[in-house]
Amino acid sequence: MKSPPDGPSAHEGPARSGVSRRTFFKLLGTSAVTTATLGASNIAKGLAEANAERVHGPGAVPVTLKVNGQPMTLQLEPRTTLLEALRTHAGLTGAKESCDRATCGACTVLLNGDPVYACSLLAIEAQGAEIETIEGLAATGQLTELQQAFVTHDGLQCGYCSPGMVMTLTALLRKNPHPTEADIRRAVAGNLCRCGSYPRIFAATLAASGQQPTAKLNVIPPHEHALA
User: Fold this and answer.
1) Average pLDDT of the chain?
2) The pTM is what?
3) Number of C-beta neighbours around residue 56 at 10 A
4) Which domains does the chain show, CATH number per domain?
């Protein structure tokens, strides 16, 4: 009988690499953790670089706004609202500060044609947008049809809500030149008139759109309420 050749027997198969299954999975797990850590590190680095370009303040920074067609650069703290920027820094006091909680609409301005509460929008967020205030409507000294209708139909009493009302309804008439009374009511749902002049505001808006106000909106003829 011949002696077996040196080395492993034929039935033992090929030589092993010397790495156990446990070691293999341990190495695999370590590799995955390392890869994930590096990936997270790269993501964090990317976010930090991106945020470095967007984070401003806490001190005043230059903020460029386009108001009534004119660009202006103001030095503002990033926390400054658009309302404060307009009133305190730009000298445009038409938009009124009242509730300062986005509930009354006295501060309404148009942002890219849509009414917004200026008290609840940061000025820095309005960069690049078209901002329109009540001052911009009659910049040439000529009242718009809506403004004139407010005068004709006594659409105001104390007048504090009027700039916001006019801006909201200006946006409505630009998008819907012939609104119904229901359309008008929906449009000014976010504008509060504490004097209760809503019927005259509705009548003025209908008149500005070339429509005849309904009888119920003209309980007292324009300009005669002082004598009633």
Assistant:
1) 84
2) 0.72
3) 14
4) 61-136 (3.10.20.30), 145-217 (1.10.150.120)
